[in-house]
Structures are given as structure tokens and as C-alpha cells.
Amino acid sequence: MTLFGVVFGAVLFMVVVGEWLGLFGSLTKRVPWLFWLAVIVAGGWPVLAEVVKATVRRRVTSHTLMTIGMLAAIAVGEWPAAVIVVFFMRVGEYVEGFTAEQARRAVKDLTAMAPQTARVERDGAEVEIPVAEVKAGETVVVRPGEKIPVDGEVTAGQATVDQATITGESMPVEAGPGARVFAATIARLGSLRIRAMKVGEDTTFGRVVKLVEEAEANRGDVQRFADRFSGYYLPVVMGVALFTYLLSRNPLATAAVLVVVCSCSFALATPLAMIASIGAAARRGLLIKGGKYLEALSRADVLLLDKTGTLTLGSPQITDVLPLEGFTVDEVLAFAASAERYSEHPLAEAVREAAKAHNLHLGEPAGFEAVPGIGVRAWVNDRLIEVGSSRVISKSEYIPELGNFEAQGKTTLYVVCDGKPAGMLAASDTLRPEVPEALAEMERLGVRRIELLTGDNERTAASLAESLGLQYRANLLPEDKIAVVKEYQAKGHMVVMVGDGVNDAPALAQADVGIAMGAAGSDVSIEAAHVALMREDWTLVPELFRIARRTMRVVRLNLIFTGCYNLVGLSLAALGLLPLTLAAALQSLPDLGILSNSARLLRLRESSIVTEKRHDNN
Fold this sequence. Notes:
Blueprint: H1 2-21, H2 23-28, H3 33-56, H4 62-75, H5 79-103, H6 105-113, E1 117-122, E2 125-130, E3 139-142, E4 151-162, H7 164-167, E5 173-175, E6 180-181, E7 186-198, H8 204-217, H9 221-248, H10 251-260, H11 265-268, H12 271-283, E8 286-288, H13 291-299, E9 302-305, H14 307-311, E10 312-323, H15 329-339, H16 346-357, E11 365-371, E12 375-380, E13 383-388, E14 411-417, E15 420-431, H17 435-444, E16 449-453, H18 458-468, E17 471-473, H19 478-490, E18 495-499, H20 505-510, E19 513-517, H21 523-528, E20 531-533, H22 540-574, H23 580-586, H24 589-599, H25 609-617
Parallel strand pairs: 9-16, 9-18, 16-17, 18-19, 19-20
Antiparallel strand pairs: 1-2, 1-3, 3-7, 4-5, 4-6, 4-7, 8-20, 10-15, 11-12, 12-13, 13-14, 14-15
């Protein structure tokens, strides 16, 4: 960009000073026209060949406009002006490519992070082989400081893993036996033995790179508008040039009209901004599959939300332990966890986790029995423990009301010891802590309606929706969620759906923009959604909306600047107030403005909700 500014400024200075002193014309007229022709052909041939091919196919491109400007300058004998057009055509082409390359650096940076070799156990020995030769099921050894070469499951070892390349999260996570790890992440402060599950392009990292590359080629409606605009713009410019000639009979003014508006700024106005935002967002762990989704996000006014795994953590947790007379909290929890010690029910896992958090010693259950629809019973330390629904106390003494857990949307477990009620446990799927602030931020951003869509029962849905101040619909099947999305779309709303990408996949696909929460490692999530958030962080949702709106503001500013510049330049040229050579030099001015404006979006990786809110408040 600095190089372009220096070159542009130097050439513009020479042209302006030369015109002002009257030296430019006298000097250039001494040069034979054949020399100018040779320079034009040598410098502009690649572009001219492209224009010829496009013309044969009846297509109008931005270079078509520049070629017409160049031919107009040649037609009136202003060879230097034609050379200036070609010069800036090539310089602009170079700078455009350089800026686009800077915008695509996210993909290049990601690709460079991919490990090239892996240390694999074969025939009792560790051998280093290319990553592409690793087979699923093999054991990969990763030492401290090395990149993990595959997606897989840790079978032995312990390490702190930096997952920023996948999730965009700077805080490392602890990985031990049973943990899922991803290719291109880094094992620090420890070593791991990993059973390979996916390698190469099939890894989450490989899919991320592929999706970002595809996103850069996915053109939004506003980009297609820019292409169509060139087709309409050319006849208008030709009409103004003809009108200028008929009124003034001045061929130089007519040529200046064609030259001054022949930049490729309209074609650059959108693609560079989109590419810059998509690349910068990828560094933040937000995979946007194309510019059209940024455009849709900027206009979205309805936000539909899944509950389990999206607003909540997706796994139940014990929230309350209420003992009856004669029992303590630890006793009730230990009874329940011991009886549920080998149960595979999700609530059993929640009970065991709660006991672990209380550092309780669990007894070994004997005679374990799971009773469908009721619960479990087992002998623990010679005591019969029953855990389950209210049916486990149907033949025992009455339990007084200890709290309206159901009204709060919680699941109640009753604990009975030797036929005597010991207490109650309440479990619920915990709300993600950052959700309330994130939803409040969405309202501040102007999203007019936010609605919860869930397959849970009415009472559970009502409890959560009331705590968040949301409208809701309960007892929904996947096809019901699709119907809700279509209902809003039929009313002309731009709909965004946020889900976990599994059972919500159809609704995510139907929405104008489907956002999958925590898509790292999930093929279904990455494929189903239009935007994939690689970590489970709700603060990324309002940030995504801000990125989209900022991108479209830059696009609109690009288009407005280009339009105003062309209007002023065309008017001055038509009135004969803009010399042809100066018009040729100034025609690249909007390109420079657009490139500089779009390059600002490359800094999106440093943005945050807090920073944006502070900026808005000021």
C-alpha cells in the first residue's frame, strides 16, 4: 500500500506540475508515437487480451472501461495519457493482488501451521513419517512443544494443549486420557500418545482451511451487483461522452470523460472488503462460508435459538441437594452417587460429578438394578438405596414439599435409604454464563425479535425463557423448527438460527444464516451451518454481527466514495475543466481510497465486544 501511494503521488505530482508549467505536453510531443504504442502494447497486453476474450463472450469487466479510456486517449492523439492509463492499470492490478494476498494471509497462516510429519508407533518402534501416511487407528506420539498431527483421542499422557489454531481461544486446555485433540494444535508442558481418528484434509483443521478458501470465492449479492453495475455503467458513460461531444465539439473533453471514470473501483469496492473480513474472522475462530452471509447478517432482524448445547452446556448438573431430617447433604449425595456408580444415565453422571466436587467417598454397589421409568436401586454398605422419580417413594412415608423444582424447570431425583426418604436432588442443564450479556448485546445491536425454540417441555422452556426475557416455543421437533424459520421468512424477515449443528442441522440450513455453536471436531456442524463458531463462546455471536455490519459499512463507503468521485470527475471533464493527462492520472485515485478503506478490516482479529461497547458509549 505504501509503495502504491509513493508511485501514485510521484506520477500525479509530475503530471500536475508538468501541466501547470506547460512542460509536460512539449516534452511528450518530442517522443515518436511508435514508442508510445510499443509501451502501451508491452505494458497493457495481458489486460488487453483479457478484455478481448471478455468482449467476445459479451461480458463487460472493469478493465473494459479502462481499455475504452485508453483507446479514447489514443483516438485524440494523446498518447502519453493512454500510457498513464495503462501504467495505472498495471500498478492497480498489482496493488489489488497484493491487498487480496494480505487479506488471504489467514488461510496461508493456517496452512503453514499444518504439521508435515508425525511420529507413529510401528512394530514396537517410533518412526517419523509424512502426515499423509498416518492411518486411522495408529498410535501417534507427541512430545512437548510439538504440533499434534492428527485428530484423535488421547490414550496416555498429560499435556497442556494450545488450541488457538482451531478455536481462536488463547487460553490452553488440559488434555489427558480420553480427551479429544485436534491436528495443528500444540502440546505444551507434557507429552501425549494419541489414537489417530482423522488425518490430512479430513481433520477439523483441514476442513477449516478448505472452508475458508471456499468462502473467499463465495460471492455475495452485493458483489454480483458490482459486476452487473459495470454492464449498466458503460452505456451511461458512453452516453455522457456522446452528449459532451455533441454540445462542445471538443474531442479532448470527450476523451477526458471516458478516461476519468475508467477505474476499476466499482469492481474492487466489495470483494476486498469481504475477503479481508472473512480472513480476519477466521483468526478469531469464526468460519464464515461466504460474503453473502456477511451481507445477510448485517440485515438480520430475527434471531432464533436452540436450547440444549446452545444456550446451555448440554449436560445436566446437580443444582440443589435437600436432605430430610436425620440425614446430611453429604450423606444424601453419597447414597445417590454410590447407587448410580455404574449407571449410564446422564443424570447419574451429574450425580457422580457432584459427589466428586464434594470429595465424597463412594461405596461399592451390590445387586444393582435399573427399573425403567422409576430409577435405580442397589445395596450400598448393607443399606438399600433407591434413587429416581417420585415413584420410588410411592410406598413409603410422605415427603413434605421442599421446593418447587419443577416450576423452575429442574428435574427432581428422590433418594430413599432402607425404605425411608433421605432427601431430594435437583438437576438442570446449566445456562452458559455469558449468554445473558450476549443476548442483551444483540438487542442493543437492533435485533428486533429473539425467540427460543426447544424440544423440551413447556415448563422447562418457560422457566429458561422467563429468566432471559425471551419468547419461546416448546415441544418442537426438527421439522417444527424449520416451519418457524419459514414462517418468519414468509413475513419478509432476515432470519439467523443459532444451534449446536446436530439435531438443528435442517433449521440451520433453512435459515438465511445458520450459526453452529462450538463446531470444532463436529463434521455435521461445519457442514450444516453457514457460519461455524469453533469454540463454545456466546460472546462470538454479537461480535459476528458487528463484523458483518462493519464490513457492509466499509462496502457502502467504498461505493459512495467511488460514485461521488466519478460524478465530480465526469462533470469537470465534460465541462472541459480537467485536462486529459490529469484525468488519466486521477482515475486511480478511487482505487487507492478503496484499497486503504478495505484494508482496515484486516484488523478485525483484535476486536471484542467490550472494545466495541466502549467505543459506542464514547
